[in-house]
Here is the input.
Amino acid sequence: MKLTLKVLIIFLFILFFSSQAKANIVISEVFYDAVSTDTGKEWIELYNNSDSAFNLSGYELNASSGDYYSFSNSLEAKDCLVIHWNSEGINTQSDLYTGLDVFSNMGNTSGWAALFNDSTYSSSTIVDYLEYGVAGMTWESAADSAGIWIAGDFIPNVEVGHSIEYLGSGNTSSDWQDQSYPTPGTCIPEPTTLFLFSLGLGVLLFKKR
Here is the structure.
C-alpha cells in the first residue's frame, strides 16, 4: 500500500510540474474553416494562464505561409484575446485584427499556429505550437526541439464551422478537442492538475496519521 501511494505522489508531482512548464501565454482555440467564405471569419484565441498581466510586445503569431502578426499590447491575468486572421476591424482589448493587405487564409483541412516571443523564429523563441489535419507542418521541427510538440503528431481535422479548443494542459493532439460551437473570447478552464496534486498530498497526510 505504501509503495502504491508513493507511486501516486510521484505521478502527481510529474503532472504538476509538467503543467507549470507551459508558457504563460498559450494558444487556446483556433477557428480555421468557416462556413462559406473564410476571409474575415477565421481567428486564433490566446489565453494568459498566469496570475498577472503579460506584456505581449514583441511576440509574433504565424498561421499561414509568410504571414506574421506582431503584438504591441498586454493581456490581463486569466484573460483571453482573439486575433482575427486576414480580417479588418477596430482593435480592442479583447479583439485584434491582422488586416487584409499581406495576410492569407489559414488552411481549411491542414495547417498550424505558432507563437514566438520575438522575430527570430526558431526553436529558442517558439513558445506555443499546434498543427492540425496532417503532420510535418511549418515550425513542427522547431516546436519538437523546444519540447512543446511531438514531431508527427497532429490534431485531426474538424468539420466546417467547428473549431479546435485547448483543454488547458499538455502538449499533444489529445489535449485538444473538436468544438462544434466555437467560443471566441470564452477563456479555457484552469487545468485540474493542481487540485489532483493537492488531493494526493492530502491522502498522504491522512495515511501518516
Notes: The chain is about 20% helix and 25% strand. The longest helix spans residues 2-20.
